[in-house]
Design a protein that fits this description.
Layout: H1 2-7, H2 9-19, H3 27-42
Length: 67
């Protein structure tokens, strides 16, 4: 759960919203689940990669895109 919340907050939010409708899902909810699965399948090759550099500048460079 820790990894999901801090590495994929967009997916964690979507799963939380969809879980509200587990007891009585409608067609729109099932379409949303299919969209989430398509998104996960299309982005399965994405990864976080950390590389060491020879010189340290003191401050890390951080890039985030959670659209």
């Amino acid at each position: 759960m820790y990894l999901i919340v801090y590495t994929c907050p967009d997916i964690a939010y979507l799963v939380g919203v969809l879980l509200r409708h587990v007891t009585c899902p409608g067609r729109i909810h099932m379409q949303a689940v299919k969209r989430v699965f398509c998104y996960l399948k299309g982005t399965s090759h994405y990864k976080l990669e950390f590389q060491a550099e020879d010189t340290l500048t003191g401050e890390p460079e951080i890039y985030v895109d959670s659209d």
